[in-house]
Amino acid sequence: MSREGKKVVVPIGPYHPLLEEPEYFALYCDGEIVVDVEWEAGYNHRGIEKLCESKSWDQVTFLVERVCGICSTSHPIAYVQAVEDLAKVEIPERAKYIRSIIGELERIHSHLLWAGLAGHFLGYNTVFMWAWKYREPVLDIFELVTGNRQSYAMMKIGGVRRDISDDDIPEMRKVLQELKPKLEMLTQAVLDDPVLAARLKGVGVLTPEDVKNYGAVGPTARASGVDIDVRKDSRCAAYGLVDWKVITCQEGDVFAKAVVRLLECFESIKIIQQCLDNLEGKKGPIETEVREIPPGEGIGHYEAPRGEVFHYVRSDGSNRPVRHKIRAPSFVNIPTFKASCLNQTISDVAIILAGVDPCYCCTERMVTLYDAQTKKKIGALKDLIRMSQKKTEKIKFRMGKKC
Amino acid sequence: MKPDILRKLEENFSGRIKELRVHSEKRLYLSVGKEDLLPVAEFIFNSLNARFVTASAVDNLENMEIVYHFSLDKEDVMISLRVVLPRDNPVCPTLSGVVKAAAWIEREMHELFGIQFLQHPGLKHLLLPEDWPAGVYPLRKESPSCPEKGKK
Amino acid sequence: MKLTTKALTKSLWVFHLSTGSCNNCDIEILDCLTPRYDVERFGIVLVGSIRQADVLLVTGIGTKKNAPRIKKLYQQLPKPGFVVAVGTCSCSGGIFRDGYSMAGPISSIIPVDVWIPGCPPKPEAIIAGIVSLLEKLK
Fold first, then answer.
1. Strand C45-46 to strand C13-18: parallel, antiparallel, or no bridges (unpaired)?
2. Per residue in A48-91, pLDDT tens?
C-alpha cells in the first residue's frame, strides 16, 4: 500500500481539534490534576420530543429510532412499551422473543463498538480494528433479518413488524457460535493484561452513593455494585422467560466497567440462543392489533446497552401523542463524569470519559482543558487521547513490555 | 401494586395527597401541591429508597404540569409524582436539594417550557443555544414545530 | 487539470464532522476504515485537523448551535477543498426537517459537492460517493 511518500497522519479516531467554539466539556486542571468539570450539551439537540407531537403514534416509532444510532432499537422498544402500558395491551409471546433477540444483538454490537473505542483511547489500535471487524457479522445478521445494518424498524405498538424466518435462524446461530470464541479471547486478554490492570484499576471510581445521587444506570451503575437492570427487574419482552444473569462488579473503576460490558456479551448470546430455540419450528402471531390509543398516560423503559432508556407518553385519545418525554441513559450517566473525574490525572480523563460510554456522538465532541489558575486553554480531546495513549506506553515500558 | 407502598404513602401523607391513581400493578400516579413536593419526593427517594429516573413537564394549555418519575426497581414499580402549576406563572421549588440528579432536568424544563425553579443552583441553558430568543419556549403548545417554516 | 487537483486524486485526507446526528452515519464512516472495507488502501485517511484535510465529510442535520462552527470549519478547509454530505439528514434534514433546532440542511450553510443519501448509507455507498467525487475531479 503506497503512501506516496506522505507521512501517515494522526491516528484514526473520532475527535476534533478544538477551535474557538463553545466547549462541550470544560475541564479545569491544576498541573496534572483535574479540579473541576463543567458540561455543556445541546450540540445534538434535534427537538425530537416536539417533533413527536406532530407525528402519528406509529410514525413516532421511526423517529425515536434515530435518537441515537447505537441504542437504535432500545428507544423504539421503550416507546412501544409505554404506549402498550397506556392502552393496557399484551403482546404475543413470539413478539417478545423477537424483541429480545434484536435488543441483545444491539447490545453485543454496541459493547464491541465501545471496546474498540476504548482500545483506541488506550493506544491499543489493533483492538479497535479487531473489535469493529467482529462487529460486522452482527450487523450482517441485522441486515439479513431486518433489512438494515442500523435502524431496524422492527418495533410496532402491539408487537413487531417482521417475523424471523426459520430459514435465517441457522445463519444467526452460526454467527453467534463464531463470535463466542472471539469474545472469550478479548475478555481473557483484558482480564490477563497487567498493563491494562495497572492502567485502569482504581481509575475513575464511581461510588454507589454517587450512582444513587446521579441516578446513574446501566454498566456505569452495575460496575459499582448497584444491581439494577431493567431487563431483570421488569421482565419486559422475553427476559423473564429465559435463563440469564445480571453482571455486576464491585470496584466501580474503569476496569470494572470494561469487565461488565464484556461479560454482558456472553449473557446476550445466551439469551439470543434461548429465544431462537423458542422461535424455531414454531408459528404464532407477532402482533396484537391496536386500533386506537385511549386517553391516558403510559411509561415504558428498557435496558439499552448504556442503561435505562425511559419514555413517558400522554394521550388525549387522538392519533398523536400530546406529550412524549424521552430520557436516554447518557443524560444521567454523563454527569457522573464529574464525580469520577475529579482529582484524577489528565492522562486518565479520556478513558474515564470512555468508561461512562456516552453515546458515541457525545464522545466525539469537544473537550477543552483549562488551567484552573490562569483559566487559559491548554488542550483538547485529541491531546487527552494522546496523553492517555502515552500513559499506557509508559506503563508498558515500566513493566518491560515491548511497545 | 404492593399494598405496603400505598400504605406507607397514605400513613405519612394522608390529606396531603390530592390524587392517587393505580394505573396497573406497576404504575402509580400521585398528585400533590407544590408545597408538598419536597417532603413527598424526599420520602420516596430516601425512605422508600427509590431511584430518580427523570421529570416530564407537560403543557396542558389550562395549566402546566411536572411529573417526577421514581423507580422502585426490585418491586418493578414506577411512582410518578405530579405537581400542577398555573400556566401564566409556572414556579416550583427545585428538587435538586433532595435529588442531585434533578438539577439537569430542571434546566431542560426551564428552557423548553419556561418553568421557574426556585433556589436552583444554576438555571442556564442546557440544550438550546445561548442566543435563543428569550421568552420563546419550544415545547409550549403555542410554539410550532418549526418556527421558521415557510422561510426556507 | 490543475496540479493540486491531480495530487488530490492520488490520496484523500478526510475530516469528519458530525453536526447533530444520531451517529449511525458516523459509525458507518468509521466502519469504512475497518478491515472489511479498509479505505486506507485507497489512500483515504481520516485526519484530526481541518487544516490538513482535502475533504470535509459532514453528517447530521446542522443544528443551530453547530451552524457557526460548520461555517468556520469550512473557511479553514484549505482550498481546493470539497464537502461531502453523508446521510439523509445532512442532505435534506430528513425526518428532523421540521424541528425547531434545525439550521440545515448542510447545503444551506456551506456549499456541498457530493450528497450521499441513506439512513445510514452503507459503507459501500459512502465509498461509492467518495469515488464519484474523485471522478468529478478528473
1. parallel
2. 888 889 999 999 999 999 888 778 899 999 999 999 999 999 99
Which CATH topology does C21-137 take?
Answer: Rossmann fold (3.40.50)
Q: Say how far apart CA A60 and CA A192 lie, in whole Å.
A: 45
Q: What is the pTM of this model?
A: 0.90
A333-372 confidence digits (pLDDT tens): 988 988 998 999 988 988 898 888 776 444 444 567 778 8
User: Which residues in chain A are closer than 8 Å to C19, comparing Cβ atoms?
Assistant: 43
CB–CB of A310 and B104 under 8 A? no
Bridge partners, residue A379, by sequence: A369
Phi, psi of A268 (to 5 degrees): -60, -45
**CA B61 from chain center: how many Å?**
17
Q: Cis omega before residue C80 (within 30°)?
A: yes
3-state secondary structure (DSSP) of residue A66: coil
How many C-beta neighbours within 10 Å does residue A165 have? Answer: 10
Beta bridge partners of B68: B55, B81
Chain-chain contact of C101 with A45 (C-beta, under 8 angstroms): yes
Are A315 and A381 found together in one domain? Answer: no
DSSP string computed for C95-120: GGTT-TTB---GGGTS--SEEE--SS
Classify strands B27-32 and B51-59 as parallel, antiparallel or unpaired.
Answer: unpaired
Domain residues for A180? Answer: 48-329
Tell me which chain B residues have a C-beta less than 8 angstroms from the C-beta of A297.
Answer: 23, 29, 67, 80
Same domain, yes or no: A52 and A39: no
Instruction: Look up the ipTM and state it.
Output: 0.93
Q: Measured between alpha carbons, how far is A132 from A126 in angstroms, rounded to an integer?
A: 10
Residue type present at position A171: E
Q: How many Å is the Cα radius of gyration of chain C?
A: 14
> Of the residues A271, A296, A329, which one is the last residue of a structural domain?
A329
pLDDT at A30: 86
Q: Give me the number of domains chain A comprises.
A: 2
Quickly name the fold that domain B3-87 has. Beta Polymerase; domain 2 (3.30.460)
Set of chain C residues whose Cβ sits within 8 Å of the Cβ of A66: 22, 24, 95-96, 119
Residue contact C97–B129, C-beta within 8 A: no
What is the grid cell recorded at A86? 397506556
pLDDT digits (tens, 9 = 90+) for A101-151: 999 999 999 999 999 888 888 888 888 888 988 999 999 999 999 999 988
Q: Which of residues 94-123 of C touch A (CB under 8 A)?
A: 95-96, 98-102, 119-120, 122
Of residues C10, C20, C22, nearest to A43 (C-beta): C20
Pick the more confident residue, B95 or A349. Answer: B95
